[in-house]
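Field: sequence (string)
Field: structure_tokens (string)

Example rows 1 and 2, in order.
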Amino acid sequence: MQTTWKGTISFGLVSIPVHLYSATQEHDVPLHQVHAKDGGRVRMKRYCEREEKEVPYAEIAKGYESPDGRTVTLSDEDLADLPLPSKKIIDVLAFVDEGEIDPLMFSKAYYVGVADKAAAKPYALLRDALTESGQIAVTKIALRTRESPAVLRVHDNTLVLQTCIWPDEVRPVAGIAPEEGVTVRPQELKMARSLMDTLSEDFDLAQLHDDYQQALQQVITARLEGVEIPHEEEPGEAPDNVIDLMEALRSSLKRAKGGRGADDGAEEEKPAPRKRSPAKKAAASEAPEAAPAKTSAKTSAKSSAKSSAGSSAAKSPAAKKTTTRKSTAPRKAS
């Protein structure tokens, strides 16, 4: 692996000689510019406007044009001799929780390797301290013609230097998100979480691949072999306006589950219409007949009252007298 940078990590009074190696590589299909008419290669020529002729790359330098039109020429030696403390030193400034650095600021990643055997122990010390604390180290580094903030973190038991952009290079986000006042119902949020959980089941990031590069390679191969270019069916147009968010979530959940038991989760979120219980329904159907029954009850109560009154009359003094007379009659001798 080719070395990108050589220098030293400064960790307090501890110095760790290190090399940086590019941690990523692109796998794009190499394309170049050609003349569409005949396929001839189109090349960029370095042309000097003053001398009106092409110049070799060895004579190319960098320049800066001031607002008043003056030009300053800077050679590679000028850029190499800039008075920067971070030119060959990765100075550890602080240790912070990883969540304090917005991933929006992250740029290119480099593996950090030791420059010699003497650097192995301090390298391991810094790596293990970062692992145990769960923190990352904030640093600065000058790479090529740019100084950048950077962080040191641990990946697969190896230190990684991740360059960052400066905080003032992050554009403001005001006015991009929807305005406040949008209300999300609890059942919509719960359905969205259910969809998130379903989509995340058995997900393996390592299984992702570049469909665009694969399709491009198929087209190139077809052209080289003189066969028909493969075409994919055009996907259906996505709806430009979601009318029923719950229905869209429900359909998405069903598709994510492959139609297997998707309705179970959907029914939990769908507000069911309020239905009467069988007992209440029966009571409601018998309601018209309740009035006569009530009237009959009143009549029965009145009859009961009259019967009670008759019974009271039977127990009047006259009745008691008759009863007394009967009870005082002499018994026949047996």
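Row 2 begins here:
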Amino acid sequence: MAIQWFPGHMHLTKKAISERIKEIDVVIELLDARLPGSSANPMLAELTSGKPALKVLNKRDLADATRTPLWLDHYNSLPNTRAIELDASEAMPARRLIDACHALAPTRGTMVKPMRVLICGIPNVGKSTLINTLTGKRATKTGDEAGITKVEQRLVLADGFYLWDTPGMLWPRIIVAKSGYNLAASGAIGRNAFDEEEVALELLNYLIQHYPAMLEARYKVEVTPGITDEQLLEEIGRKRGAVLTKGRVNLQKAAEIVIYEFRGATLGRITLETPEEFAGWLAAGQLLDAERQVKKDKIETNRLIKFKKIPRPARSDKSDKPGEPGES
């Protein structure tokens, strides 16, 4: 299953960023610390035209504390980029954000040359909650639902420091299949765009390999060698009483339990990818996407030839074919 979700207001966000970026000094991209690679918008690099970037790994209190430093090192190693981590419990994050932006654009931040910052992120990454914390008031609507913020707004974070907030935005086509599942599990994608059972199975498949002890502790199940995600989901359903008539397990209910307990960290502090894992998924996705594009181009070329929009390519000389005169 390919998971895709790009509501109409996201097109408007893309247009707004394209227009606003000309006067922006630093771009803050809020990432989900549980899936830092999958939650990084590949379209943003194109839209922001190489502007200095601050990667903020939000929800660090929900992520694996041993994996977050790996991602910070990864992003801090990139040119013109800094990375920090935040969580909902941090009462005064403004100073850290301001200092990090000044490090990226040291000549800005005065009343004469104010710092102009654009903050972006995928839906439901915690951006609205962060901005309310930064401003000390309820500046934006928040909730555990993707796509709540739908308009751009400007905020004054400090003297000489202006922050433009944008609605959460995904990208039109997710080429990394694993990213689609991780985004769905995190709540970044609307419920109507994915099947909970399939997402839960993908999630369990990863957790069996990397966090078996958490599964055993939370669900009182045995994660034995060779157990499949299907078997585990069914066992979780039985343990939690998600049972239908004749002893059948309600897999939909079991899937919802797994997904929502991951989102709330009831299951434990989990990160669904390392930099190395994501790099491998991305390379595979790009290769598959390139192969799809070749097939798509071939189909389009044949269509244009059929309707005589373009000339048919000249055939190669018969002498090049095996068995014809001229064969060596």
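free_text_note (row 2): The first strand starts at residue 26 and ends at 32.
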